[in-house]
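**User:** My hope is that you can spare some time for a protein that puzzles me. I have put the entry right below:
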Amino acid sequence: MYKVLIVDDEMIVRHAVKTLIRWEGSRFEYAGAAASGTSALELVRETGADIVITDIKMPEMDGLELIKR
């Protein structure tokens, strides 16, 4: 089972991505969502997320910097 984290500064996008993915019966588990790269880093450490679906342009830390870290 792969844990998936969704990162976007817009709540409606985070909700849409979560809703569009069929979690039940798949090899993916919803690990949570974050509104910034900074909070996403904390969640990755807490949840052990394997996959991060991220927006590129966000305040504080953008998606590219998040991926680098």
